[in-house]
Amino acid sequence: MLFSKLSYKVSIVIVLLFSFLSCASNQKAISEEPTVNTPPKLLFLNYELSKSTNGEKKINLINQITAEGRLKEKPTIVENTQPGDLQYFILDKDLKEIDTQYIKNPLIKTFEFINDHGEFEKKTIDLDTVQFHIRLQLQPQTKYIVFKELTENKPKTHITTKIE
User: Fold this and answer.
1) How many other C-beta atoms lie within 10 A of the C-beta of residue 57?
2) What is the pLDDT of residues 115-156, one digit of tens each?
3) Domain membership flag for residue 142
4) Where is the signal peptide, in residue numbers (predicted)?
5) What's the gap between Cα 159 and its chain centre?
6) Is residue 131 part of a domain?
7) Could you tell me the end-to-end alpha-carbon distance of the chain, in angstroms, rounded to an integer?
8) How confident is the model at residue 103 (pLDDT cuts 50, 70, 90)?
9) pTM
């Protein structure tokens, strides 16, 4: 008799437990927003760098172009930076750094040519004005590009471009 009462109570507990579990919702309590797959985008920024007669440099944005696509190669890594080289920072909306890259001084161009004796020769020209561009894979969080010029003491900030 004791066994049947115990078995009866266990059976009731098991039935109640299954009834509560079967009534539980399988849906998530927090609804998730559907993810939108946006195609990758490229950003092309065209600038003009000019040097005044007193040696002061100025960078102006010519235009910015956004297009669908993906970069085929990684940006080249500049080693042995020197004063006059440029550094640009990719920043988010809170001005936190996402990435940084270097550009050799665009005002200094080195040309190789064959001289009158049939030998290769190098000539370096210091320009007063030059146009240069950067292209990068546009990340959704990218909001600003900041250019700095490397100097003997500390980098000099030139231009901040808001990405539209």
Assistant:
1) 16
2) 999 899 999 999 999 999 999 999 999 999 999 999 998 899
3) yes
4) 1-24
5) 17
6) yes
7) 82
8) very high
9) 0.71
Give the count of domains, the chain.
Answer: 1
Buried b (16+ CB within 10 A) or exposed e, 43-53: bebebebebee
Number of Cα atoms under 13 Å in the Cβ half of residue 116: 0
Q: Residue 158's domain is classified under what CATH number?
A: 2.60.40
Which residues are bridge partners to 112 per DSSP?
A: 122
Quick one: DSSP state of residue 73?
S
Residue 113 CA to residue 63 CA, distance in Å, equals 33
Q: CA 73, CA 87: separation in Å to the nearest integer?
A: 19
pLDDT per residue over 71-96, tens digit each?
A: 887 767 777 889 999 999 999 999 99
pLDDT for the residue numbered 2 = 47
Full residue range of the structural domain in which residue 73 is found: 41-162
**Could you tell me if residue 8 is inside a domain?**
no
Degrees to nearest 5, angle at CA 85 with 155 and 147: 55
Tell me how far apart the 2 most distant CA atoms of the chain are, in Å: 119
Task: Find out whether 23 and 15 touch, Cβ atoms under 8 Å.
Answer: no
